[in-house]
Design brief:
GO terms for molecular function: helicase activity. Its cofactor is Mg(2+); Zn(2+). The structure is a single chain. By secondary structure, the protein is of the alpha/beta class. The chain has 25 helices and 17 strands. Strand 3, helix 5 and strand 4 form a beta-alpha-beta unit. Helix 14 runs antiparallel to helix 15 and helix 19 crosses helix 21. The radius of gyration is 26 Å and the shape is globular. It binds adenosine-5'-diphosphate and magnesium ion. The site of magnesium ion (MG) has 4 residues, from loops.
Length: 571
């Protein structure tokens, strides 16, 4: 079976996302592989698919017990032989699972990293990474299994520079050294250049293939508000979103409790979450949030790693996060379903001073300096008057346009302009492609992309490439804008496709003008280049149709309608 067939038969998905397929190929070629992909991007399949294709057992290192269980349950539901081992199980249970692994009845075995390490050694590790290591009996058991792949999820946990250092992760290099022929795939959603190099180093990856997906989360709107009056602003914000699900991050445990109970007293549906709550209570609150039984989770950063809840509509930061990695990871929990979502942060410079006080690492000037620098970068984000998305993406070494149109800075520099032509181009592409594609594809199509995803029959359509003068980001924004105004609709589901609405027809017919918000810079650029290809044959056809429909004479030449739309027009 090919990776695609495995994806379809075992997981029920029709196609790979982003770089998934290339990553899987790299693993199948037994290369060490490093994957940096945003939260919700689909990292799990990058090792789950190879696990089913390779001969032997795939060990998955995963830091969170709750997460491990969810993943294994999901795999089992798909009929895949998977199990996990962690400290919540009795030794009898653990032995039974190892027996299964020995008799090759398992394809994937999830492991908590602390299983590989003696307790007393954990304490020694953070200060001295090369601490002498005596393998636990368990470590030796793992070596005796027929291991074909080691997957290390949340790999940034191995680095001090990440935001979630776990000393047990340092043991994984020993695992790699003991099994030099077994490929390792390390996956994370959070790593700047420094952390990235640190991960590759500490895991002792050999000439790894490196895959870095775009970090842009176009559907998340970034906003920063001054912290003065934060509570009132928060209530305003929440009142407009009463039926929506969201996370509010606070710095301290106490403030999560206070805020949650104040919210409750004011009729909002909120619960606190922090590491100081009883284990059962924490689990219960998390579960309730996942099941939509409570709308608002007021939490410390203890909440959220790996949580796969698709309809989180907003993430609010009441206090400044300690670095951009954490901030991006936390805001990334919003809008995993691709629908418009908000990231709102309250900011005052006082937070920087306060956090610096906590960030000092006694006796380690280098670490202190790095922590301070990261805080300064976070503060710069708060103070920014240019595009916030660009700042975030550049932070992760990803280039970006000066203008995203979906953050408070960009939105402050816009004006309403006549966007009828742009809207008509989008609507005619949606129509021509029979309302079967999402925004990403429609944009590639409009821009005449040479991506292999676009088949020849689509390339031959007249609408192909009619929007090549506008950037991807800009098209995304236009589509978001006209969707919000009801000229387009999005279907439900993980992969929403764009659909025409009753309002689209009037625009296509030239009977309604569409106003859109745009930056002055873009308006000027477009005014300079506004020439439209004139296609006689098509125009004649349309004219015939128009006559037939007895409509006005105004349909522009680049509008190409699908049969379905023509029928709708005729109706
Ligand atoms: P990550 O670990 O990168 O945060 P996950 O592996 O948890 O992301 O995947 C996020 C969601 O996306 C999951 O619900 C998963 O089933 C879904 N997903 C991943 N890849 C695909 C795909 N190719 N097609 C459809 N859904 C996918
Ligand atoms: Mg994951």
């Amino acid at each position: 079976m090919s990776p695609l067939q495995v994806l379809q038969t075992h997981f029920g998905y029709s196609s790979f996302r982003l770089e998934q397929e290339n990553i899987i190929q790299s693993v199948l070629q037994k290369k060490d592989t490093f994957v940096l992909m945003p939260t919700g991007g689909g990292k799990s399949l990058c090792y789950q698919v190879p696990a089913l294709m390779l001969d032997g057992l795939t060990i998955v290192i995963s830091p969170l017990i709750a997460l491990m269980k969810d993943q294994v349950d999901a795999l089992r539901l798909n009929g895949i032989q998977a199990a996990y081992l962690n400290s919540t199980q009795s030794s009898f249970e653990q032995e039974a699972i190892l027996d299964k692994a020995r008799s090759k009845e398992l394809k994937l075995l999830y492991l908590a990293p602390e299983k590989l390490l003696r307790q007393e050694e954990t304490a020694a590790l953070p200060k001295n990474q090369s601490a002498k290591f005596t393998p636990t009996p368990f470590f030796n058991t793992i070596l005796s299994l027929h291991v074909c792949l080691i997957a290390i999820d949340e790999a940034h946990c191995i680095s001090h520079w990440g935001h979630d250092f776990r000393p047990e992760y340092l043991m994984l290099a020993h695992l790699k050294r003991a099994l030099p022929a077994v490929p390792v795939i390390a996956l994370t959603a959070t790593a700047d250049n420094l952390t990235r190099r640190d991960i590759v180093d500490k895991l002792a990856l050999k000439e790894p293939a490196i895959f870095i997906s775009s970090f842009n989360r176009a559907n998340i709107r970034y906003t920063v508000e001054p912290k003065a009056g934060a509570t009132d602003k928060l209530y305003d914000f929440l009142t407009k979103r009463k039926n929506e699900s969201g996370i509010i991050y606070c710095l301290s445990r106490a403030s999560t409790e206070t805020l949650a109970s104040n919210l409750k007293a004011n009729g909002f549906d909120a619960l606190p979450y922090h590491a100081g709550l009883e284990r059962e209570q924490r689990a219960r609150h998390q579960e309730m949030f996942l099941r939509d039984e409570v709308k608002i989770m007021v939490a410390t950063i203890a909440f959220g790693m790996g949580i796969d809840k698709s309809n989180v509509r907003y993430v609010v930061h009441m206090d400044l996060p300690k670095n951009i990695e954490s901030y991006y990871q936390e805001t990334g929990r919003a809008g995993r379903d691709g629908l418009d979502s908000e990231a709102l942060m309250f900011y005052s410079y006082g937070d920087v001073t306060k956090l610096k006080y906590f960030a000092e690492v006694e006796g380690n000037q280098e670490q202190t300096n790095i922590a301070f620098r990261k805080l300064d970068q976070m503060a710069m984000y708060g103070d920014l008057s240019s595009c916030r998305r660009k700042y975030l993406l550049n932070y992760f070494d990803e280039p970006a346009d000066d203008y995203c149109g979906n953050c408070d800075s960009c939105l402050a520099q816009v004006e309403r302009v006549d966007g009828t032509i742009a809207a008509q181009k989008v609507l005619s592409a949606v129509s021509r492609l029979q309302e079967r594609f999402g925004a990403g594809y429609i944009i590639d199509f409009l821009r005449g992309s040479n991506s292999s995803k676009i088949p020849d029959d689509h390339r031959q359509l007249k609408t192909f490439g009619i929007g090549s003068d506008v950037s991807k980001e800009e098209w995304n924004r236009i589509i978001r804008d006209i969707t919000a105004q009801g000229y387009l609709a999005k279907s439900e589901g993980t992969y929403p496709v764009l659909k025409l609405t009753t309002k689209s027809i009037a625009v296509l017919k030239g009977m309604e003008r569409v106003m859109i918000t745009q930056s002055r810079a873009i308006v000027e650029k477009q005014e300079a280049s506004e020439t439209i290809e004139y296609d006689t044959e098509l125009f004649d056809k349309l004219r015939a149709l128009r006559r037939q429909l007895a409509e006005d004479e105004n349909v522009p030449a680049y509008i190409v309608l699908s049969d379905a739309t023509l029928q709708e027009l005729a109706a």
